Amino acid sequence: MLQQPELLAPAGSLETLKYAVLYGADAVYCALPQFGMRAAPPNLTDAELQEACIFAHARGRRVYLTLNTLPTNEELAALPEAIEKAAAAGIDAFIIADLGVLRLAQKYAPGVEIHFSTQAGIANYAAATAAYELGVKRVVLARELSLPEIATIRDNTPPELEIEAFVHGAMCMSVSGRCLLSSYMTGRSGNRGECAQPCRWKYALVEERRPGQYMEIGENEDGSYILNANDLCTAPFIDLICQAGVDSLKIEGRAKTFYYVASVTSAYRRALDAYLANPNADPFELPGDVIDELNRTSHRHYSPGFYFGKEQALQTPSHSYLREWEFLGTVDSWENGAARCTQRGKFSLGDTIEALQPDGTTRTWAPAWLRDADGLAIDSTPHPMMSYTMDCPEALMPYSLLRKRSGGEEGGN
């Protein structure tokens, strides 16, 4: 059991990993292009993994590598080399779901910790203890557990066994991610990181004697999304999760942007620090800006997941994302009242800008002037990745994130 809970953030790229570290993660989890359960993000090359470990370790943070697919017989031959390279790069742990991969990791990287993935479906203390006896350092619990169930696992397992649980992000309708819908309907395996998310598609009822007559189930004009899960958000009760015995608080989102990861990590850093500063507070007082920050990312409706039972666990009335803020760019440097930035979204003079800094503080202002990379005056930032300078009366930290209010919902997924 860790001395104090760890905040664990996702990274689908080297850039995202750096932002996760700078915005408060104690550890990050990432993957190589193969074996990592996420095919959509770019993931890391061997060289980038080594750079990631150097970057994180220099700041006292840890790096975990996911090897949590269920490999085929044909894929096993490539695993020893991948394991040895990852160990040489300096990773701190493997996240594994398959018993064969576990044994290969123990053979080819005996000094690296093994964390048992949520894909392994650890849902009781007997399974957790069995994993520990196999040499597992940490279990990532099944997402279907309540707080009392987690506390029971903690009370009935060796204290040396660490417990990890998801605290924020997208949820899957299937048990511990074991789903065949995507494979059956599209040929893309959700168990191999290629999920097409058919659980979030629009569906209608058809009566067998009335082919072609599609009937809505209810809810709204777009139909009912009977498989569509809310997003998990546990910040308001992060104290209860820690008190249940969870050692590592895991944010979902290796397919998310670096802006999303930085923003959510920053919010949970503030929430966790507030708890650690006064762990005996009753009631726990969540800093007022935490939920505001979480609402500045693109997300579905939030729910507490299964932590308080099944009643509010998954269902959402809409397939749309809530998106009230638009990401504009990053700050490269600030000097003498001017910020040099890189564009990630267009804005114009007259817009009010907010900057989130790596220390969690924010700045708000309306720039009075803009200049392009050649120093010429401009009235907007229309070009992707363009460099520009704008006035900013207060100092801004490098890696600050720029955004503006946009409002409304995004359609689709």
Task: Describe this structure as you would to a colleague.
By secondary structure, the chain is an alpha/beta fold. The chain contains ten helices and 22 strands. The protein has helices spanning 14-22, 46-58, 79-89, 99-108, 125-133, 147-155, 181-186, 238-243, 258-277, 289-294; strands at 6-10, 27-30, 62-67, 93-96, 113-116, 138-140, 162-170, 205-206, 214-215, 231-233, 248-251, 302-303, 321-322, 325-335, 338-343, 353-356, 362-365, 370-372, 377-378, 387-391, 401-405, 409-410. Helix 1 packs parallel to helix 9 and helix 3 packs across helix 4.
As residue ranges, the low-confidence spans are none
Highest-level CATH class of the largest domain: Alpha Beta
Main sheet overview: 8 strands, parallel, barrel
Structural class: alpha/beta
CATH architecture of the largest domain: Alpha-Beta Barrel
Strand order of the largest sheet: 1-2-3-4-5-6-7-11
Mean of pLDDT: 89
Tell me the overall shape.
globular
Strand runs, count: 22
Span between termini: 38 Å
Relative helix content = 10-25%
Total number of domains: 3
How is this fold's topology laid out?
Elements: E1 6-10, H1 14-22, E2 27-30, H2 46-58, E3 62-67, H3 79-89, E4 93-96, H4 99-108, E5 113-116, H5 125-133, E6 138-140, H6 147-155, E7 162-170, H7 181-186, E8 205-206, E9 214-215, E10 231-233, H8 238-243, E11 248-251, H9 258-277, H10 289-294, E12 302-303, E13 321-322, E14 325-335, E15 338-343, E16 353-356, E17 362-365, E18 370-372, E19 377-378, E20 387-391, E21 401-405, E22 409-410
